[in-house]
Amino acid sequence: MTSTGEQRSARVDGQAAGGGPLAGVRVLELGTLIAGPFATRLLADLGAEVIKVEAPGRGDPMREWGAARCEGRPLWWPIQSRGKKLITLDLRSPRGQELCRELARDCDVLVENFRPGTMERWNLGPQALAAVNPGLVYARVSGYGQTGPYRSRGGFASAGEAMSGLRHLGGFPGEAPPRTGLSLGDSLSALFATIGILSALFERETASGEGQVVDASILESCFAMLESVAPEYDRLGAVRQPTGTRIANNAPSNIYRSRDERWVVIAANSDNLWPRLAAAIGRPELAHDPRYATHDARGEHEDELDALIGAWAAERDASEIDRLLVDAGVVCGPVNTIADVFADEHVQARGMLVTVHDEELGEVRGPGVVPKLSRTPGRTEFRSTWAAGADNAAVFGELLGLDEETREALAGEGVI
Description:
Oligomer: single chain
Structural class: alpha/beta
CATH superfamily of the largest domain: Crotonobetainyl-coa:carnitine coa-transferase, domain 1
CATH topology of the largest domain: Rossmann fold
Number of domains: 2
Number of strands: 14
Shape: elongated
CATH class of the largest domain: Alpha Beta
Number of helices: 18
Largest sheet: 6 strands, parallel
Strand content: 15-25%
Radius of gyration: 25 Å
């Protein structure tokens, strides 16, 4: 690792038993809002020590994002900042940059999601930090990547989703392409950045002993999700179009409205599942009907299939549909609201609702640790604070050795 063996051992020993597979890995987060902080939240969930840097007097805008308020506070911040150490540091000032370099000296990973070129202007680019820590894995998340003609464009999830081709595939033919209702592109780029970070850490430990730059972009992360859309265009000139609630020529696989006004996914688009569904809806003869007997044939007659399955579903409540089709071995599932998810026994049994202990809001529940590891499962208890710089004393004092008088002077100068 970037530190000595004794330092790494001390880090691991300082973590609670079962703290996660990344116990002993120290991460410096310089990002704001969604993509960078989501990546570091995933690393923190798996046991990494994450030190989050915020600008003095301003903090991460995520502290104020979200229309829904509890006790006057939005509820995204406790989830996104959970398990992190919070410090303040002015990266625009020479002294702040110097302190950042000192922090990076004893970190394994740095994550930033500023516009390309920003870190270089602050003398904190990869080359500058490699000079003080050759083993540093330097992860960069941006709209379009660190190179190329779009590198300097402002990058938000909405634009990256649109320009990647992902958003074009949503919605219904002839209508405006809708958005998911989430910053999907930010989350996807955070996931790919996390994969890159873990890959770089593995390579450093098993091969070179050196760090490297992880360059993750929103556009490319969304483009990577397009399945066969790219080769279809490359070889056939086919431009896939939006198909509403189903995927064209992949039937039956759609949502159907139940008698009690619930939407239910029913998917039996493989040759082994279709006979099961035909029998479950009381039409076993359809399994061998030439119109539906093969995958291609069902694709050609998808409207007919949707009509007959929809009529069957409309005569039953969602719970009955679910019971009948699960018993028949057919893929199905209700379209849940978040209230339904919270009440779902499987979600509860899998530990996917975990509690963040927030100093102002009390207990706040959010998504659990993903994925599940059998021996080092990661953290299931988290803390959250609204105090900017809550861990200044611990980080600058214990990690950098700055005494209280020095810290107070730096705070007075607006550096921390």
